[in-house]
Amino acid sequence: MTAEADDPADVAAAVADAHRREWGYVLAATVRVAGSIDLAEECVQDAYGAALDTWRRQGVPRSPGAWLTTTARRRALDVLRREQTLRRKLPLLAEPGVTDGPEAVVDELDALDGGAVIEDERLRLVFTCCHPALAREAQVALTLRLLCGLTTAEIAGAFLVSEATMAARVTRAKKKISAAHIPYRVPRTAELPERLDAVLTVLHLVFTTGHTAPSGAELVRTDLVERSLDLGRVLAALMPDETEVRGLLALMLLTDARRDARLDGEGRLVLLRDQDRSRWDGDRVTEGLTLVQDLHYSQVGRFGLQAAIAAEHAVAPSYDGTRWARVVALYDALLREWPSPVVALNRAVALAEVAGPEAALTEVDRIGADGRLAGYRYLPAARADLLRRLGRAAEARTAYEEALALADNDTERAFLQSRIDEVRGR
Amino acid sequence: MSEYLILIYGDEQAYAAADDAARMQLMEAHNRFAEQVVEMGAKMLGGNALQATGTATSVRSDVVTDGPFAETKEALGGYYLIDANDLDQALAVAKLCPAPYGGVEVRPIMSFPEE
What we know:
The structure holds two protein chains of two kinds. In chain A, helix 2 crosses helix 3, helix 15 runs antiparallel to helix 16 (341-355) and helix 19 packs antiparallel against helix 20. Chain A has 20 helices and no strands. Residues 96-100 of chain A have low confidence and may be disordered. The longest helix of chain A has 27 residues, at 8-34. By secondary structure, chain A is mainly α. Chain B is α+β, with helices and mostly antiparallel strands. Helix content of chain B is 31%, strand content 37%. Chain B contains three helices and six strands. A four-stranded antiparallel beta sheet of chain B has the order 2-5-1-6. The longest helix of chain B has 20 residues, at 20-39. Chain B starts with a strand and ends in a 7-residue tail after the last strand. The interface between A and B is medium-sized, with 13 and 12 residues.
């Protein structure tokens, strides 16, 4: 502890910072002792509440995470001692050894003093949140709640559902984890690729939801972007040998590097073509490119390939100076790895720079014909842009209007409206 | 260890239309499954095949009705009760369970504290 009491505002900021950075770490360490996610969450919540008081009186500790962990674990032990009898008969997590009563728990607590053990706990928590027996939306909600410390209201706001709906979703998922005995462990090597893919998909979903908010006035939900970068860094540190983990982190860094350049002075959307590349975040670009350079191309998967595409944009001197043939080739590789119509659409947009808008339009229409992208706003938007470039103003306008009807984000809507005005003026 | 019920759902008409060779094959697959469960370190506590839903009778309050509780294309055709370490092991077992005319559902058995 520092010698003198700190300013209340500083203490509140320190608690908020510890909440953002350390929540998942503290919770994971506490779950191991508590044997139940619910109890652990309660105790961690209490610990953060106690931090506000105690740090105000005694100063902010040198290691807030360690202080919070110790406090939350002590609380969990107190509760367990009170409920010892019941708990021995009702193990809540399929993890032998954690519910054997206070003695065993104290041993566990001692064993947990090493940081590496807790890091491993955090990884277990990640895989439990993203277990395939849980629906994708529940995986996302649990990850944000348990690992990133977002409140149910915050998660509900990000995914456009009511708080009651989100609360029910989280409760149901937690109940299933305990009732169905979803194991609290890192999967075995044989299952790891499939299970890891689910984790990365969840993380990427959180990131993309933040990168372009599904609705509302803000283009970017900074909180979601920052949390997914934090968690991506944690995963990359915890699983240094997993190429796809580093690929996803690189993809997120290189994409987010463009954040400031995506809006002009008046808050209008600026497309990649027109972005002021000097406004890209140089640190993020460097960090992302370093990760991409270290990828082993023999093991690279869909996230690594997307990172490689993002890296092509990051190193290009300008939109026209981009190595588009390479970008298309990377999309070809990505399509083989991940045959998704969204990937095919992105490839078509890149193809326009190699083979011209006419060829790209043929491709976009072919992709649209199978119906899987019905309701996906970027399909008519991409089509509209190609038609505009081909001088087919009337058709372009119809397609932009189609995209506008599907777009819910105010910034995107304003952009599409400006394009409609532009082609109408022709 | 925790207990799980593996419920086998399938298209009854497809099963009814199967020839003897297909049924024999299915029977052998179930026999093999029982061995695999043990090899995997889980325990087989029981299981049965059920007569078709045409033989089912539903009782709701006092009212007795001919037919299954819910009419579905894929009906419950059999079950296994197993004991597994956790859901991962139960799902690994379930993946091996023969269900050529549909699929299986895994349900954890509810345990009550003994006071």
